[in-house]
């Protein structure tokens, strides 16, 4: 069964898109990540224009994080003060990201910028996760204990001014790195269509010493708000949000996440990180391969977007 995507301007097999949402939802539920960093490249691989893929994944990310954020709020595992400070930078970053996205689209370089950014970001994160997980597995097999940095040790940026006390997270740190972190996550979300949870959660845990469950809950709230804002801004400024595509992805992702969460509970954490690292690295390699592969058509005539 084929449906026509009005914004992407191409027909697609509805069951293929649904299966993609199902698979990424399964991975999201299994590994505890948003899945936008996988969904956007997959859509591009199937022929969806990168600009439409990035913008249409934003509502998918917002919807997928809503139920999780609500659950963590009910359990009291969200630091609302920390969320507010992160959002003060995140919303500014989202606005700046949409403006940057519109500029790259006007000059005709948005496809190249997205591909290069995904290659660098996913390649670095995948390599780090793979290295860390292999070391953790080797350490576990030798009978060693995981290496944990003492909570009292802080990096230089923790000694910056404007310190705040975040009672739920039990930390007393400068608000400056928190705002900057929120800005970076908002910027990445708007430009690349990623929720940023796979960056924000480790940053909160290892940089700011926030408890793991509180980090996940707080990250979901930030993803929900920034991705909702990105959806509205992309629709208004760029007109690249395909509602039909987003709806099919939402349905598939919601179903897949339920099964993925059950599967993830049966595996050891270090093996989960190993599989996720391999997955992220393989996507980065595929995006990089598309960058260097010779195009099917050496010369393509296309209209220039923007005012004449």
From TrEMBL:
InterPro entries: TM_pro_TauE-like (IPR002781), TSUP/Inactive_protease-like (IPR051598). Its main location: membrane. It is a multi-pass membrane protein. The chain crosses the membrane at residues 12-39, 85-104, 110-131, 171-204, 216-233, 240-259, 271-289. The keyword Repeat does not apply. Pfam families: TauE. One of its GO terms (cellular component) is plasma membrane. Keywords: Cell membrane, Membrane, Transmembrane, Transmembrane helix. It is found in: Cell membrane; Membrane. Belongs to the 4-toluene sulfonate uptake permease (TSUP) (TC 2.A.102) family. This is Probable membrane transporter protein. It comes from Xanthobacter tagetidis.
């Amino acid at each position: 069964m084929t449906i026509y995507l009005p914004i992407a301007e191409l027909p697609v097999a509805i069951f293929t898109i649904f299966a993609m949402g199902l698979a990424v939802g399964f991975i999201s539920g299994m590994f505890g990540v948003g899945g936008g960093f996988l969904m956007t490249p997959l859509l591009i691989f199937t022929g969806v224009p990168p600009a439409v893929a990035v913008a249409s994944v934003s509502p998918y990310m917002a919807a997928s994080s809503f139920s999780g954020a609500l659950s963590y709020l009910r359990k009291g595992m969200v630091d609302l003060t920390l969320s507010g400070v992160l959002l003060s930078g995140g919303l500014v970053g989202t606005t700046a990201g949409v403006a940057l996205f519109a500029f790259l689209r006007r000059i005709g370089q948005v496809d190249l910028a997205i591909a290069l950014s995904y290659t660098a970001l996913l390649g670095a994160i995948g390599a780090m996760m793979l290295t860390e997980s292999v070391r953790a597995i080797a350490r576990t097999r030798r009978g060693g204990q995981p290496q944990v940095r003492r909570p009292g040790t802080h990096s230089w940026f923790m000694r910056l001014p404007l310190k705040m006390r975040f009672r739920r997270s039990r930390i007393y740190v400068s608000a400056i790195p928190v705002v900057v972190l929120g800005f970076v996550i908002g910027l990445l979300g708007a430009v690349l269509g990623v929720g940023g949870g796979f960056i924000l959660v480790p940053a909160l845990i290892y940089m700011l010493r926030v408890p793991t469950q509180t980090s996940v809950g707080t990250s979901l709230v930030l993803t929900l708000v920034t991705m909702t804002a990105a959806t509205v801004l992309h629709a208004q400024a760029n007109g690249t949000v395909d509602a039909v595509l987003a709806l099919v992805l939402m349905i598939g992702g919601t179903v897949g996440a339920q099964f993925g969460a059950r599967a993830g509970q049966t595996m050891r954490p270090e093996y989960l990180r190993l599989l996720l690292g391999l997955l992220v690295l393989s996507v980065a390699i595929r995006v990089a391969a598309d960058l260097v592969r010779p195009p099917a058509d050496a010369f393509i005539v296309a209209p220039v977007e923007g005012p004449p």
